[in-house]
Design brief:
With 428 residues, this protein is mostly beta strands. It is built from two helices and 35 strands. The radius of gyration is 22 Å and the shape is globular. It starts with 5 loop residues before the first helix and ends with a strand. This is T9SS type A sorting domain-containing protein. InterPro entries: Secre_tail (IPR026444).
Length: 428
């Protein structure tokens, strides 16, 4: 699919120059040279995991995983980890909390000698582990609660198979299910709520192609991303809105792999057979996804890889600052890379709580703001990063009208005396 990207690129350049000049963002790219260092995940501090190592962006150091661990798949801001460990000479899905590895075990319906649970994600609050599990020939997403130590495998009663790729602090699992379709099966994006209920999206619409339809990521504001009919999409559960995005120029297909809590979505575009290039989306960058290498180029960084591509962007930190992935090539041997966007994108600045007080939260109609310094501007953004309101200001005290906004999570950007603070507010 080809399209004219001149307008979008121009909008991006203007936005990038504006935010770079105001936040003095220090964007940086690091590409690892060791084979087999493809990243699986990254957190707000630039701490990431490859399949077998821990990585620190600040120091550039790789550290081997613990002897009992066999594979690393996910890391959160507390540096707790999901992966595979060895238990009694067998492989088992496991998790590390406070430096101690534990196994998730098996359900009563599973046969430990034949069945497996493969972990894909750990929630930011470390309560939930998720992935794909099977009970004999039946496959579905599993959910393990680290507080109650309860393990369940969710088998779709209407389908033939399923998997879960991610879970948020609300315990919502995201992935796909295979539904019967004229003698075959059709893969459909699906999420599962904590009551075990399966939901497919978009509602009342089936994909026309049978592969690469899935929800690959979810943030803590219940915004999901993935691929539907070979195009990237974003679904806001709270607002019940499904948004499909265009495939980047000259690409064959595209998908979002994950989304930060402040609306930075990353993923990849298939630019040729088994050749990918990383993509990024945020409303401040334009209306459609852009190639990440173009964003880097506009900030003075050249992507110097064998094929000129960044390959797959698999993870973005919850604060939207760090992106991790791997270059093209056999996945098990691929070299990993990580980008620090710093404060390039609106809303990723470090939250401060010392100069702005606000109440009530949750808010029903009016949010009151008080600051030590005179307020210069106030704006309200939804969880996908779109500006939904500008606010009239009055010295150190300002009221923000939420009465016309839908229920959900919003970010209130307050500028005062050269500083920027982002407040997370819940509208009832």
């Amino acid at each position: 699919m080809k399209k004219n990207t001149f307008l979008i690129k121009s909008l991006f350049l203007g936005a990038a120059l504006f935010f770079a000049s105001n936040t003095q963002a220090q964007v940086e790219l690091k590409i690892l040279t060791e084979m087999g260092t493809r990243f699986s995940d990254v957190n707000d501090d630039g701490k990431g995991v490859t399949t077998a190592q821990y990585y620190d962006f600040a120091t550039g150091e790789l550290t081997p995983m613990e002897p009992e661990a066999l594979l690393l798949t996910s890391i959160n801001n507390d540096e707790n980890v999901a992966g595979i460990i060895e238990v009694n000479s067998n492989m088992e899905a496991g998790y590390k909390i406070n430096g101690e590895w534990k196994g998730v075990g098996f359900t009563p319906q599973q046969d430990p000698s034949n069945d497996q649970n493969f972990p894909y994600g750990i929630s930011d609050d470390s309560r939930y582990i998720t992935g794909q599990g099977n009970e004999g020939v039946n496959y579905g997403g599993f959910l393990f609660d680290t507080q109650t130590e309860e393990l369940v495998v969710r088998l779709d009663p209407q389908g033939e198979a399923g998997a879960s790729y991610g879970v948020n602090n609300n315990g919502i699992m995201v992935g796909w299910v295979d539904r019967p379709d004229g003698g075959g099966t059709l893969r459909v994006p699906a999420y599962i709520t904590t009551d075990g209920e399966f939901h497919t999206i978009p509602e009342n619409q089936s994909p026309t192609v049978s592969w690469d339809n899935a929800i690959y990521g979810i943030n803590n504001n219940n915004v999901m991303v993935g691929s539907f009919d070979l195009e990237p999409f974003m679904y806001d559960l709270t607002a019940n809105t499904f948004t499909s995005f265009e495939i980047p120029q000259d690409a064959l297909s595209a998908a979002f792999s994950t989304i930060s809590d402040n609306g930075v979505a990353v993923g990849y575009a298939e630019v040729d057979f088994q050749v990918r290039d990383a993509i990024i989306y945020h409303p401040t960058l334009g209306e459609q996804p852009l190639y990440l290498k173009d964003v880097l180029a506009d900030n003075g960084i050249t992507v110097d890889t064998p094929d000129g591509y960044l390959g797959t962007a698999i993870s973005v930190s919850s604060n939207g600052k760090y992106i991790a992935g791997w270059l093209n090539g056999p996945p098990m041997n691929a070299e990993g890379w990580m980008v620090n966007l710093d404060d390039l994108i609106l809303g990723t600045a470090t939250l401060q709580t010392t100069t702005v007080s606000y109440y009530p939260n949750p808010v029903k109609d009016v949010l009151n703001l008080n600051t030590k310094e005179a307020i210069s501007s106030v704006a309200v953004y939804n969880v996908t990063g779109q500006k939904v309101a500008n606010v009239s200001i009055s010295e150190n005290n300002t009221q923000v009208d939420f009465s016309n906004l839908a229920s959900g999570v919003y970010f209130v950007e307050v500028k005062s005396n050269g500083s920027v603070e982002n407040l997370k507010v819940i509208k009832e």
